[in-house]
Amino acid sequence: MSDHDEPTTSMASQEVKVIQIPLNFPMLPQLAMTGNQATNWKRFYRSWNNYEIAARLRDPNNPSTNKELRTATLLTCIGADALDVFDGLDFANEDERNNIDIVVSKLEKYFIGETNETYERYCFDKRDQKSHETVDAYFAALRTLAKTCNFGNLEDNLIRVRIIMGIKDNATRKKLLEVSKLTLQQSIDTVGSCEKTAKLLESIKNEGEQVLAVGKEQYKEQRKRVEKRDEKKNHFAVVCNAQRRPFSQRKSVNDDTESSEGEYIALVETKEEGQGTLPGTLHLEIDESISPVQLPTRRISLAVKDKLKAELNRLVDMNVIAPVDTPTTWISAIVVTFKKNGDIRLCIDPKPLNKALKRNRYPSPTIDDILPYLAQARCFAVLDAKNGFWHVRLDEPSSYATTFGTPWGRGTTDEEAYLDHDKNLKGLMERCREKGLKLNPDKIQLQLKEVSYMGHRITSNGLKIDPEKTKAIREFIWEEHVHGKALDEIR
């Protein structure tokens, strides 16, 4: 050996390091060659970095050692298909084939290729929180996507924005937007806290429900008798009220007493009294550029008036509607329809108002969206919200936009009518004084039950013919010598 070769041998001997690999350490899963190869390589390489440290192949303090051993271990783990890819790679010499850094670089270039920064950013911007995905998992997915987007110093800010825009809960998003100087960690903590609170509320709600039960065996037995008639004519036992078990005899699931009827079928207790109300109030956004419309009151037939007045009084007592004693910019027309049982249904016709409303668009699920959830369904139930629209309360400004006119004006009782009369009269007097209009005090008549107007008598009971217009006919003298002539002229 020459003098020139001695230092090289000595240097090589200094780089060799004896290591001990745990024999019971599991092998790394092979690199998958099907599907998205770029994603498969990223997952494999993440596992490989951890495997190197756990198996003591790489020294974190001196990563340049044992490169040949690390390369051989990598090629052993990637599997036969990936090894064929390695054999086809172009290396300058054998040293490059044994250099773990060069091998990893060439494999990464093969499986991932040149990173398309525009596409990577597109994938990042389209990544929303998935159903049942926690905020920590969502944050980890965004952090992984951001690594190939080259965001630089803006990475944390863009991840924060993506979390705000991509989370599922609108209430949480609103809470985040209310903070002017929100950091990434604050957004993660806020979303995580809201998720935990929502789970706790759901747990409390489920525990607070009082559940009743009937015996499953009794239910099956009742269904078997569907074709069996009872003693009454044209009666079936399963639908006869007399044969049904009284509701008071059903036992609570939380009851500790043992039952001989076997398993239970749960029935949630419901309340029949009162009107259901959803939490919060609804505000109607109205386009101010559209002029308000006051529609005239539609005529109501005499046969319906009594029922309509009774229905209005009932709705007022239920706090569904309220009398309006102030001028309003929007007035809709009232519409009366009949239900199958003969009762009336009170509606309004807000066509002009609908044109001015700024609507929130909430897409309803289609049949294609729902069918996958019903693939294994064998038993179904149908529920219907009672007076569904009444569950949504309007705030004070929005409620005036839904004002509608009635045949009784602003008052449904004599007391309300007199109050409305006096208020309108006071406003008229003030208007006359403001414009300089002088009234004749001798002809002023107040609080009348009926008045003459354009050939008619407007009364508190409806419209009548003005007697002055029929006076000539009623007082006509039918003299005998002109009776026949007058009759012919009338004919």
Automatic annotation (TrEMBL):
Domain of life according to the entry? Eukaryota
List the InterPro entries hit by this protein, alphabetically. DNA/RNA_pol_sf (IPR043502), Retrovirus_Pol_polyprotein (IPR050951), Rev_trsase/Diguanyl_cyclase (IPR043128), RT_dom (IPR000477)
Question: What positions does the domain Reverse transcriptase occupy?
Answer: 339-407
This protein's name = Reverse transcriptase domain-containing protein
